[in-house]
Known about the structure:
Number of helices: 4
Shape: globular
Radius of gyration: 16 Å
Number of strands: 0
Distance between the termini: 22 Å
Number of domains: 1
Strand content: under 5%
Largest sheet: none
Structural class: mainly alpha
Order of helices and strands: HHHH
Helix content: over 70%
Amino acid sequence: MDRTRFLIRVSAIYAVIGAFIGSHMAGAGGYEFRAVHAHILVVGWLSLFAFAIYYKVFPIPRKSALAAFQVWTAFVGSIGLTAGMWLYYVKPVEGMDTFNLIFFIVGGSVLMISFIVFAIMTFIQGEYISEDN
């Protein structure tokens, strides 16, 4: 799997969704989706894009299990957090409050794990992170 291509494409999808939600809010004059909109852009677009650039700029080994784990937890966590946030705040189906809350918390927790793994990886694979590469 090409980590950079995968993360760039997913971040581009988040950018389109975030921009669409923002334009919809502006056009409708209602800002009920502002938290979801902001998280889609920050978590989905910016964070995944930053991870993609990291893998492009620094020669992290392609066979790194830690990097693969970080990419997949970032992907799953960003979907879980943003979809869970939408379910929690918008409540498209009544009576699912507990499920929505758990979905939101699990998604956010998986994303947090991804960020922690990323931080750990910058130390474990620090020899690949240099201005000289």
